[in-house]
Amino acid sequence: MNRNYALGTGDSSDKAWPDRVNLLTQRQASENPDPAQRFFHIGVKDVVMSRLHTGVITTEARGNLSLCGFGSGGRLGRSCHSQMSLLPLPDLPHTILAIALGQDHTLALTSGGYILSWGNNRFAQLGYAIEAPEKPSPFAKDGDDQVQVSPKRIVGPLKKEWVRGVAAGRMSSACWTADAVWTWGTNLGHLGYEKAANPVQVNPRRVPAITQPVLGVALSVSETPG
Fold first, then answer.
1. Across residues 57-77, what is the average pLDDT?
2. What angle is formed at CA 71 by the lines to CA 65 and CA 72, rounded to 5 degrees?
3. 90: pLDDT confidence band, cut at 50, 70 and 90?
């Protein structure tokens, strides 16, 4: 059924209604000349899940990473026990291209080609050392002194490298550049170099046996100390 509706009082003042509509349309167009932008909606570029948390990368230009899940250990980039709904990472001025989630830590690759990491560093999986506080809290639990709550850039050997991708396992992490693979964390023989000489690799180290360009790296989340 078609229904027709008439608006107005029927007097001469209603003749100005089309002019007012046109004026409003022109004003909106001048404020935002691109029609596509007037109907822009935030989209999802990627979704990554781990055992205890989930990350979503959106199409926003900045601060485009949201996380949810269990927050103990700093894996959500903030101090909280749990976060049921997806919330943007606070005060993140970067554009995130990719993320990798270990059980207790998070890696984020920025548009600038460097990595941010945060979470629990008890297996050296963050790519840098965390200094224990001089006066630890009497209420701190085991491992609390190895937690990086807010995102921190991995520098060291990667300072002048342009990273193309990241991977995370339970006890280790990895990334790759145009011609190399870099790994760090607790070495169970899966980091690409001798376990006995390097049982724990704190800073990223290049895997010497890989000399060809790499498209991707996978790390298991079921790593257990051997």
1. 95
2. 145
3. confident
At residue 57, the 3 state secondary structure works out as strand
Q: Which two tokens stand for residue 197?
A: 């000489």
Spell out the residues 6+ positions from residue 199 whose beta carbon is closer than 8 angstroms to its own: 186, 187
Which residue, 102, 117, 183, 126, is CA-closest to 152? 117
Facing residues of 118 across strands? 106
Burial 116-142 (b: 16+ CB within 10 A, else e): bbbbbbbbbbbbbebeeeeeeeeeeee
What residues pair up with 201 in beta bridges, in sequence order? 185
What would the pLDDT profile of 93-124 be if each residue is shown by its tens digit? Answer: 999 999 999 999 999 999 999 999 999 999 99
Q: Is the pTM of this model over 0.70?
A: yes
Domains annotated on the chain, with CATH: 40-206 (2.130.10.30)
| DSSP string across 100-166 | EE-SSEEEEEETTS-EEEEEE-TTSTTSS--PPPSS--TTPPTTGGGEEEEEEE--GGGTT----EE
What are the two backbone dihedrals, phi and then psi, of residue 212, each rounded to the nearest 5 degrees?
A: -100, 155
The Cα–Cα gap between 39 and 119 comes to: 37
